[in-house]
Design brief:
The chain is an alpha/beta fold. Helices cover 40% and strands 20% of the residues. This is Phosphocarrier protein HPr.
């Protein structure tokens, strides 16, 4: 089971769109939209959010994200009214970026606290380095691969890469030119701007470094699906 997500928005279309995008990045995660009023108007509805929170929680907990202030109030009221309030948490995060980051982290099997942290961290600057590689000579494995897929490391390919190493006891860094990113962060990977034809260097350290390299190589060979 994975942590579920609820997208609380004043607009039903906005909530549905964000949920659709997050599900594309993490197909095994329950991402439920809870937007708009029952009559189709703009606003947030307590009962709709409560129902979504119940459906999204498959046993691992649920993270609620919101767009504007009153949506936060509605989400917090829902959490407070749950029979087990500690199974859910409302996170202050940019809605789209937070939903994508949280969904990918949940897809990797992380617990609710880690999923919430990923959503919140999406509001900060990406973990991208312009200084010499963090792992440096201490990296257990280094490989260089050329991106053949059409969109490089954008959106879904970045999510697939992050998911491929999620849960492994390995620190994975991806380097393009003078920039470097943590492979666990979809947003950091996307911020590299790696495109088709670019050669990237991947540095891995940890007990499961070899497994991480094997998974990444397989993903590249499949042109990121």
């Amino acid at each position: 089971m994975t942590v579920g997500l609820v997208i609380v928005s004043h607009s039903a279309k906005l909530a549905e769109g964000v949920a659709e995008l997050a599900r594309q990045m993490a197909p095994d995660v329950a991402v439920l939209p809870a937007g708009g009023l029952p009559d189709g108007g703009i606003g947030t509805d307590y009962d709709s959010v409560l129902a979504a929170a119940g459906e999204a929680n498959t046993g691992a907990g649920v993270v609620l994200l919101y767009d504007l202030g009153s949506a936060q109030m509605t989400a917090e009221l829902v959490v407070e009214s749950l029979a087990e309030p500690d199974t859910a948490v409302v996170v202050d995060a940019p809605l789209v970026e937070g939903a994508v980051a949280a969904a990918v982290t949940a897809q990797g099997g992380a617990d609710r606290d880690r999923v919430a942290e990923s959503a919140a961290a999406a509001g900060a600057a990406p973990d991208r380095e312009t200084t010499p590689a963090v792992l440096g000579a201490e990296a257990d494995r280094r490989i260089e691969v050329t991106l053949r897929n059409e969109v490089g490391l954008h959106a879904r390919p970045a999510a697939l890469l992050a998911r491929s190493v999620a849960g492994l006891d390995a620190e994975v860094r991806v380097r393009l030119g003078e920039q470097e990113a943590d492979a666990a962060s979809v947003l950091a990977l996307m911020s590299l701007g790696a495109r088709q034809g670019d050669q990237i260097e991947i540095r891995v350290r940890g007990e499961q470094a070899a497994e991480a390299v094997e998974r990444i190589n397989a993903l590249v060979e499949r042109d990121f699906e």
